[in-house]
Sequence to fold (522 residues):
Amino acid sequence: MSAFKIYFKQATRPFRSDLMTAGLSAAAVSIAAVCLLGVSGWFLAGAAIAGAAGGVAVQMFNYLLPSAAIRFLAIARTLLRYVERYSGHAAALRALAVVRPHLFARIATADPQATLKLSRGETSARFVQDITVLENRLVAQSAPASAMGGIIAAIALSLFLSPWAAVIFIAGLGVTIGAGIWLGQKTARNDQTQREQAILGGLKQRFFEILPLTPDIAAYDLSERLMADMAAREYDLVSAKSGQISRDGLIQSVSLVVMGVTLAVLFLTHRGHDLPLLALAVLAITVGFESSAPLLKAFAQKRVFDEAETRVADLYDQAIPHTTDTYAPLTDGLLTIGGQNYRLGHDTRLLISGASGAGKTRRIEILMGLRPADANMGQFSRSLFSLSPQDATPLNGTIRDNLMMAFSAEALKTCSKTELDARMVAALSDAQLTSKSLDMWIGDGGVTLSGGEKKRLGIARALLRDAPVLILDEPTEGLDADTENRLINALETRLIAEQRGLILISHKPAPRRLCREVLNMD
Fold:
């Protein structure tokens, strides 16, 4: 059993009592529904016969108790249905409210060498699509109880007519369930459901891929071509959904045909029996057949549930929690490249230079454990570094939201909002973003910011992180000379004041005055 399946069982255990309540309520709902229709049929048929027999029969007919029973069963069915829906959905929602953050935390703290390979669309599809399927699985756990309650009640009421009536119902029900399971398995082999899930996941992934390219789509007039691609994917999704709907319709049609044949056999074999009891049995058996529908649906969805769980388990098992205990501490930090040693510390001023494609950024990622370790250089705890990457993707939100990511949990607890705001404003000032307010909404991927502003927002966030060594990858790319000079002066002042080390990657000559040592990778 995978680690996720074990965890999922543990996570849902506190909600089992609510799920059990939902199952018992579902069974009681089906029993009440069968009894309500059966008693109604018996009552109406009996009242009709009494009315046809004359005034004396009408006076002798007791309509109070049956009518009271019908009202009771109607009210009970409504209340029990509410309890079933509330308990089942509340348990599923609360359980998945525990699972989702745990899964996200596991991915966020996992080894980046594994998680950075996951595409945003694929991960999102598993978070949203497959977790929702697991939620539906918890809700569907009441289906067997609902079916059994209705079936047992229908059998019990049909016995009032005759034992053979119960046998006829059981035989017809057996054919319905058997045919439904067979059809479900046959269509499942055609991979209709799996195809729908795969297409839906691919559609979401494609959407995430093209969303950041909105300016390029407009600039190169690609909207018509991309819309055609999305339309084709939508058509495939509609086709897959139509196949699933056709399967469900076929199963329901078979169930209706078998039910009709069963009722016809019941009428033919019990023509001379008491009419009110015959009406009771017929209506009870009708609802009994309807009670089997959730059971057939659960059988049909089992493969969908299992595959969703497998996909989430695969994501969960890839995101193995990451520890930094094996990394070298800063006091022993010695970066060795090309036979040269570079001490990593508060006084580090190292420039990594080289032609484009020489592997400068890759060296930084190895150093921070974002790539597999290299035998020729050390690998250190990421807590030692504060990184401003070459392409920093902003968070969808405000500037404040993006900068708050840099603060540790301890800083968020111990510092007041005023103090945090002051630190963020100072970081924006040093990054030459004083024209932007903390509450400015920057949109998805920072669409309201220019390329240079995104870069400087990443620098401001890196400055706020409490780490002894600052890593800047092309920090002045895209900046004019005046802004570049002010940024370099602000960085130099902050590095001296905070006694922080610096590792710099830059093709431009101006930022290089911040460094004393050079690692040339040409």
Remarks:
- The longest strand covers residues 349-353.
